[in-house]
Write a structure and sequence with these properties.
This protein has helices at about 15-30, 40-50, 55-65, 120-130, 145-160, 175-185, 200-210, 225-230, 255-265, 320-330, 340-350, 355-380, 405-415, 445-460, and strands spanning about 40, 70, 75-80, 105, 170-175, 195, 215-220, 225, 235-240, 270-275, 300-305, 315-320, 385-390, 395-400, 420, 420, 435-440. It is α/β, with parallel strands linked by helices. A hairpin with a 2-residue loop joins strand 7 (about 215-220) and strand 8 (about 225). The longest helix has 25 residues, at about 355-380.
């Protein structure tokens, strides 16, 4: 066994089986162990190196998996020719393991109430869809998404949001981050995009990743600063008018009209309306979509099922103005929908049978109870703590009258095992106001967790 006189470092942090695997692999690569040379049995090598047979077995198994040696029944292990392997032995660093924090209370604005999902109904519909009578669903469908789902979405949008569109105007995709790049490619490369600031960070990165010029437009109390928008050279405005993210403000009726008039002023202008959580409004009926007021076909409507059903579904949609629809069909003629057809049919059936509307009604009442509980808990700390953005959605904004900064408050909460987010983390200029503002999501917490979370949060901030 001279060829296997390896020096294994038993005090090393690298496991022994990894050291043995590496030594044998290098010996085969450099020819110390010749082609078809038989390796010692696991027992003999273990005895020789004074290690366990399990260690040898793990090393041999990895070498077999990578093709450096071959296991022959009742004969043993044999070295294989390296030149036949499609393998590059490139040295690399060990992967960096990111530090993760386990939060006992998670006020994440992206969370939903997963415990109230109608699993029994979903399971039954899944069985109905996954049937051999639906074998056609194994084939690629319409590139814009299955007609059944687009018909249901068009019907739902008209009834709930006032959106007027045909099913053919709808494009289904696996999330806003997949649809937005397609939309950007439809429009002239020279167009300049404007986005709300503070705003949804993903949008900012999409523009920059696709080499599109973009400009942050500041927010006012009732939505985007239209005057600043008019003074800029922006051609396409990205807005969240029904429930601005993250401030929670609602675009006023006056500004809605001003924004539509801005879009009509030049032929290349458009508005991208992201209606990400419009289903959940608590103080009044849902506000009609900006698209429902659009008489000039300048609003591109985008929404998703992430809040209303589940984020993991990865199903979103956009409604294209008819002049952009023609361009889309020509540009993406050979594209396939990025959402599996079984998922599309499942959601279509869920909507058609009335389960979706019933689910939304249940969840709206549930979230309304949660935000009421949240407001009651926060009222204990008034006037030091004030609340805004509570009319809709699944997050609110706290303004804290304190000398501490947002970073200090977020860090103190983290040390107490509570996740919160500072509002200025969504601001590209990282501006801080007179008092720190904190974004609190409540969708994924129970009423009791919300109350206890607020008590512990205020305790770690030393607010009486």
């Amino acid at each position: 066994m001279d060829m296997l006189m390896f020096q294994l470092q038993k005090q090393s942090q690298t496991p022994l089986y990894k050291q043995l695997y590496q030594e044998i692999k290098e010996a085969i690569i450099n020819g110390t162990i010749g082609i078809e040379a038989k390796l010692p049995s696991k027992r003999k090598l273990a005895d020789y190196l004074q290690i366990s047979q399990t260690t040898v077995e793990l090393a041999y198994s990895q070498l077999v998996a990578e093709g450096f040696i071959e296991s022959r029944p009742r004969k043993g292990f044999y070295a294989q020719p390296v030149e036949e392997l499609a393998y590059l032995d490139i040295p690399h660093d060990e992967p960096i393991v990111k530090e993760t924090t386990a939060y006992k209370i998670d006020f994440n604005s992206a969370s939903i109430d997963t415990r109230s999902f109608p699993f029994l109904t979903w399971r039954k519909l899944t069985r109905d869809i996954l049937d051999d009578s639906n074998h056609h669903l194994l084939l690629s469908g319409h590139p814009q998404g299955d007609d059944a789902l687009r018909q249901e979405i068009a019907r739902y949008l008209y009834q709930s949001r006032g959106v007027v569109c045909d099913a053919e105007q709808i494009v289904i995709g696996s999330g806003t981050e997949q649809l937005m790049p397609l939309l950007i490619r439809l429009l002239n490369k020279k167009l300049v995009y404007g986005y709300e600031n503070p705003g949804y960070a993903l949008t900012h990165s999409i523009f920059s990743h696709h080499d599109r010029q973009s400009i942050p437009i500041e927010l006012e109390q009732d939505g985007i600063n239209v005057s600043q928008l008019e003074e800029s050279n922006v051609d396409v405005a990205y807005v969240t008018p029904s429930h601005q993210f993250p401030s929670g403000s609602v675009l006023s009726a006056t500004k809605r009209a001003q924004l539509l008039n801005w879009a009509v002023a030049k032929p290349e202008r458009y508005i991208i309306e992201d209606d990400y959580d419009s289903e959940f409004r608590y103080t009044s009926r849902p506000i009609p979509a900006l698209q429902s007021m659009d008489l000039s076909d300048r609003v591109i409507y985008i929404s998703t099922f992430s809040k209303s059903l589940m984020p993991s579904l990865r199903l979103a949609y956009m409604v294209l103005p008819k002049q952009l629809l023609r361009a889309y069909q020509q540009t993406f003629l050979h594209y396939s929908s990025s959402v599996p057809r079984h998922d599309q049919q499942l959601v279509a059936k869920f909507m058609k049978d009335g389960h979706f509307s019933r689910h939304l009604n249940r969840m709206r009442k549930l979230y309304q109870k949660k935000i009421k509980r949240l407001s009651q808990s926060l009222a204990l700390f008034s006037p030091v703590v004030t609340v805004s953005g509570e009319q809709a959605g699944m997050h609110i904004v706290l303004t804290i009258q304190t000398s501490s900064s947002e970073e200090e408050l977020v860090q103190r909460a983290k040390q107490a095992g509570i996740r919160v987010t500072g509002l200025h983390s969504y601001d590209v200029h990282k501006k801080s106001g007179i008092y720190p503002k904190i974004v609190l999501g409540f969708g994924g917490l129970s009423e009791e967790e919300i109350h206890l979370g607020i008590i512990e949060l205020m305790a770690c901030w030393k607010i009486q």
